[in-house]
Structure of Prephenate/arogenate dehydrogenase domain-containing protein:
Amino acid sequence: MKAAVIGAGKMGGWFAKYFCKKGYDVRIFDKRPNVAYRLAKEVGTAASRSLEDAVRDADVTLVAVPPGSTASVVVEASRYAKHGSVVVEVSSIKAHVIASLKRLRHTHARLLSVHPLFGPGASSMRGKVVALVPIKSKNSEMRIAKSLFDDAKVVAVDWRTHDRAMAYVLSLSHALAVSLVFAMDNRTFRKAMGLSGTTFKLQILSAATSLSESPELMISAFKLNPYALRALSSYRRKLGELSEVLSRGDLPRLRKIFRACTAKTGPRLYEEAYGLLEGYSRLV
């Protein structure tokens, strides 16, 4: 079995290693040849000189490129894909991709749109969730996804539900993490780190994770997701309401807000958070 990985970034690198471990003969292509060759050397496989060369004989082609380029790269890859092969894209935003792939007619490949709900730091796919966003046939695409990612839990979700959730899970959470660091000048940041407990340090670790992404990716998360700016506007309104409550010292209203929020999170998430805090404390 042969696999082509298009895109030699973090997730492209993760999936190149994944397919190698699965026994595939992997070829890597990236528009930056030096990046592709570096990843190929690290993984122990070969880099292709062109997208066509990588895709032509592949049984599986995985596209892991920036969200703004995903649809066009999938369309191009599908032109070269052999009959019966699978072309799968792993973008974190689906609206524009699904619309483009639904219009795609002239291809002999089977198309798949998934979103791995984990980052490139994951040691394996075991126990992880992969969201499947159906393009044409949920049942047949689910079968393909489960055969490719048999270690994961594959969950089907329509693109609107997916992108609404990602507006908060990715777009807004990245903005919140970066804003925590952005709000402090250098001196305040150093003082805060020196006087912080585990809760603040975990929040900074979350911010560092967001800051490890490229600025272009963060912009894409807001420009391409039709629900992202709505989520940010909702947050700004709620933050304004909370600021007003705190400035007035309105304890009854604050208690009401706390009750509404704890009803959403429940005791299980508190216990999980406490476990993470204890685990972090043992590491430092």
